[in-house]
């Protein structure tokens, strides 16, 4: 059964445009820089697919792992008569090549082991486990009174997703038919070892369904599947996690007797939820534990003294300074109803639920709060406590505070800033803003750009495709598309001027109403296109947006990708890998010179000053310090 035969309200599948139209659109696509843009798109797609792991690893490799050991080799080269500082380079290499990879390899390996030992549901995020369990427990048996199959479970989940997308209070007959079709196609894909292709097709159809149903086309993310009030995720991810749940829980439940199956589902769902939270905590703890050891490893590679000071002071002074070890220990230890109530709290929207979801891993990727915690407790704290001397400690704070802040915030803020500039230039919407964004004052809008996770969010490839393809599938047709551009701060005149053909069509319609595309505002263009919505001109314009590689999608993806690559591959690595080590070296040299000058001055004063006078001044200093201590008490 094909989805387009179910109901006229369910969007038809994308149709291929003619070869002539494809050639025409291709010839009108704005010229891009070929190989460079292909590379940028490749980087952006890798980051989208790999998440924080890929983004962080790229910045880590290019910004710390590779350049810092090279900078370490020439550390104090002038003072060392051009000799290579091999011990300092070894320290840099051990530190950088053990820190970044371990943050993602450890949870990745542990999660893979957890799936093998405890089942595939171990990988499912908390918000989805409980929702899947509730849907499963609500309909544990089929009409024959037997435990539901995986395909029947898929149908029940799809029913809830489609119902929520369409805004229905109850699952309608049409929604049930669509869900049945979705479940059949997914089951066939799994059976034929072609699940990936099946999920891709289902995702496309769901996006069009969501687009056709959305009352608020401006702010609705058509790629998101809403399962319940407490759980939503990208549709593609949801389907993959749904399959993991079916392989694990549905499979086990099918072996239970019908009278026990509902209680079994509730119990296993609660246990899986609690187990997932425990797994998150365990993975986090193992990362922190390993990161505590890394300073010992790179200090051992460096040797007993601080190789970063080599050549900056006399050898005896050098050794004395390097023996200043910080022996403080952090002795603080973090402290950690029924299984059903605990599971509800962990999966809910309350404080406990927000904390639990805030420390969630997804594969080897970690949440932003987790990343901040790892940076603080796993990197800054142990490195500072195990610093060799005050110079080492100062460099650690300067280097690692700046590095952590840059890798957590700077790359995202740079991308948002670039997208804002490109939006103004191109007229395209490249980032999503919430409903109240343009009602806030300029400072609050700026804060939305500075927030790393919430606030303004860069559109990913799938979101761009969902917004800029098949614009007639919006609930209000081309007017819905125009409302999206206008509501998100875009410029319709610039958007439709992207190609000569679309510009001529819109210009012709505007001229009939006494307007010009260069000066007409969004409301005028929307009104004119809505008025002519059934005309050949508008149909021709709509046809240009059919292709998922149309000029608007290509342009939007390329603009976002250019600055993703620029930020991740160039700007951040240059700053972290070369500028920051240079600053550290210069700052340490400056401080040592100042201290040496002060020391020589004190020695000179002692030599030129009579012993009796020097003794009097020393005694006076001790008396003043003693008085200060008394007053402090």
Description:
It is a single chain. This protein has a domain at 3-45 and 418-554. It has 25 helices and 6 strands. The chain has helices spanning 19-28, 34-50, 52-65, 67-73, 86-118, 126-138, 150-166, 173-191, 195-213, 235-253, 261-302, 315-322, 339-347, 351-358, 368-385, 390-426, 442-450, 461-468, 478-487, 492-496, 500-512, 522-531, 536-544, 551-608, 611-632, and strands at 224-228, 231-234, 361-362, 365-366, 431-432, 457-458. Strands 1-2 form a two-stranded antiparallel ribbon. Strands 3-4 form a two-stranded antiparallel sheet. A two-stranded antiparallel sheet has the order 5-6. β1 (224-228) and β2 (231-234) form a beta hairpin. Residues 1-32 and 321-337 have low confidence and may be disordered.
Question: How is the secondary structure organized here?
Answer:
Blueprint: H1 19-28, H2 34-50, H3 52-65, H4 67-73, H5 86-118, H6 126-138, H7 150-166, H8 173-191, H9 195-213, E1 224-228, E2 231-234, H10 235-253, H11 261-302, H12 315-322, H13 339-347, H14 351-358, E3 361-362, E4 365-366, H15 368-385, H16 390-426, E5 431-432, H17 442-450, E6 457-458, H18 461-468, H19 478-487, H20 492-496, H21 500-512, H22 522-531, H23 536-544, H24 551-608, H25 611-632
Antiparallel strand pairs: 1-2, 3-4, 5-6
């Amino acid at each position: 059964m094909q989805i387009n035969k179910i109901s006229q309200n369910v969007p038809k599948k994308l149709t291929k445009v003619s070869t002539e139209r494809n050639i025409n659109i291709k010839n009108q696509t704005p010229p891009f820089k070929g190989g460079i843009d292909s590379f940028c798109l490749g980087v952006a797609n890798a980051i989208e697919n790999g998440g924080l792991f890929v983004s962080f690893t790229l910045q880590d490799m290019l910004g710390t792992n590779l350049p810092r050991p090279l900078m370490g080799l020439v550390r104090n080269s002038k003072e060392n008569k051009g000799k290579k500082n091999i011990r300092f380079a070894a320290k840099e290499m051990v530190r950088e090549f053990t820190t970044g990879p371990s943050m993602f390899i450890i949870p990745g390996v542990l999660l893979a082991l957890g799936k093998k030992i405890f089942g595939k549901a171990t990988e499912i995020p908390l918000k989805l486990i409980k929702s899947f369990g509730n849907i499963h427990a609500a309909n544990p048996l089929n009409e024959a009174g037997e435990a539901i199959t995986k395909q029947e479970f898929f149908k029940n989940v799809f029913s809830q997703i489609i119902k929520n997308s369409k805004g229905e209070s109850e699952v309608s007959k049409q929604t049930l038919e669509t869900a049945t079709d979705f479940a059949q196609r997914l089951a066939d894909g799994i059976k034929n070892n072609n699940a990936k292709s099946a999920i891709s097709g289902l995702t496309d159809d769901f996006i069009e369904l969501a687009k056709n149903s959305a009352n608020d086309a401006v702010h609705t993310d058509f790629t998101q599947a809403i399962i319940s009030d407490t759980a939503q995720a990208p549709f593609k991810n949801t389907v993959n996690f749904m399959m993991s749940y079916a392989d694990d829980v549905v499979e086990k439940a099918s072996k239970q007797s019908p009278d026990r199956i509902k209680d079994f589902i509730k119990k296993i769902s609660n246990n899986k939820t609690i187990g997932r939270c425990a797994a998150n905590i365990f993975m986090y703890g193992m990362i922190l534990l390993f990161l505590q050891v890394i300073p010992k490893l790179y200090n051992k590679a460096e040797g007993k003294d601080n190789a970063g000071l080599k050549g900056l002071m006399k050898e005896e002074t050098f050794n004395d300074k390097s023996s200043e070890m910080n022996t403080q220990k952090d002795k603080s230890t973090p402290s950690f109803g029924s299984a059903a109530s605990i599971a509800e709290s962990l999966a809910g929207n309350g404080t406990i639920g927000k904390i639990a979801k805030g420390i969630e891993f997804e594969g080897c990727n970690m949440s932003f709060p987790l990343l901040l915690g790892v940076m603080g407790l796993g990197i800054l704290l142990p490195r500072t406590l195990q610093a060799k001397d005050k110079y080492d400690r100062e460099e650690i704070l300067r280097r690692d505070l700046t590095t952590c802040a840059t890798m957590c915030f700077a790359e995202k803020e740079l991308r948002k800033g670039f997208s804002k500039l490109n939006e103004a230039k191109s007229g395209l919407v490249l980032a999503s803003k919430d409903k109240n964004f343009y009602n806030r004052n300029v400072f609050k809008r700026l804060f939305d750009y500075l927030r790393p996770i919430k606030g303004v969010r860069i559109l990913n490839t799938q979101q761009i495709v969902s917004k800029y393809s098949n614009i007639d599938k919006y609930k209000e047709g081309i007017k819905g598309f125009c409302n999206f551009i206008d509501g998100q701060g875009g410029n319709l005149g610039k958007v439709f001027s992207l190609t000569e053909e679309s510009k001529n069509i819109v210009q012709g319609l505007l001229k009939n109403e006494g307007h010009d595309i260069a000066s007409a505002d969004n409301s005028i263009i929307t009104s004119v296109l809505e008025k002519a919505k059934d005309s050949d001109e508008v149909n021709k314009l709509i046809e240009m947006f059919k292709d998922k590689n149309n000029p608007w999608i290509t342009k939007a993806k390329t603009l976002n990708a250019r600055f993703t690559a620029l930020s991740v591959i160039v700007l951040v690595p240059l700053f972290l890998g070369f500028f920051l080590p240079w600053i550290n070296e210069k700052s340490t040299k400056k401080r040592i010179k100042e201290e040496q000058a002060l020391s020589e001055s004190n020695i000179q004063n002692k030599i030129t000053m009579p012993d009796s006078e020097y003794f009097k001044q020393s005694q006076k200093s001790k008396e003043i310090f003693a008085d200060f201590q008394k007053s402090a008490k």
